[in-house]
Amino acid sequence: MRASTSTVGASASAAADGSCDPLRSLKPLAHMPTPGGTMPSGSAMERIVARGRLIVGVDQNTYLFGYRNSDTGQLDGLDIDLVREISRALFGRPDRVQFKAVPSAQRIGILQRGQVDLVAHSMTITCERMEQVLFSSDYLDSGQRVLVTDTSPVKTLADLAGQKVCTARGTTSLTELQRARPAVRPVTVSDWTDCLLLLQQGEVAAVSTTDNVLAGLSAQDPATRITGPRFTYEPHGIAVPKTSPELVRFVNGVLAHLRTSGRLRALHERWLGPYGDFYPPAPRYRD
What we know:
It is built from 9 helices and 17 strands. By secondary structure, the chain is of the alpha/beta class. The strands form 6 sheets. The protein has a 5-stranded mixed beta sheet, with helices on both faces. Strands 6-2-7 form a 3-stranded parallel beta sheet. The chain is globular.
């Protein structure tokens, strides 16, 4: 289910002068610090360890990625597990994290204001966003599709011309719907679960976003189905303030270890195994 990087469209396109490649991040640190040990002097990691906790912007309404587990009351999902692995690399334990729930539209702002150290929130890497924040290497590949009810005749986005399609504010999914030809009528909400509710109530004809998010919505309501081909290519990364390139290198070191140890594959299979192969390609670096 992985799209070729040659199909990267507007949502993850290179800059006009070719200077941007959303699939290239900063190389991992040459020598990763010992978990729970001394971090490089003056680094963001040193400040985080001195504070005693990692502060991360996450979702709490996207099933499989960042959601409130009704059985435990705790946040759970792929993004949450990745954050815990970063905590383990910093502190030697996975639980030194302060999670801050943030809507999609506020992900970049909360980073730029220094309110969080990272954002792990099913965030597509784009050249436009790379002008505002830094991203880790790609840890998940997906593409935009549509979710409809089982009784809907819709098979592709083109079948939704002139109809209401729900998406979240501040997402690449909204941008793609606004560009769609034939035109659809975007309806925007704060959280993806709100889109599912509107679909169930018949207020919209479909929900459209990346198929990894749609997989979580469909799992919550078996009377829905994901349909049509992908019409975007969406690499996902963990976002970091532009002032902390060393933290990106540290996070990339954590991801590199998770890849080589098989842990990243195991996390993908745990959360997404029944819904398709969203595993990312080999990491690429620009330095």
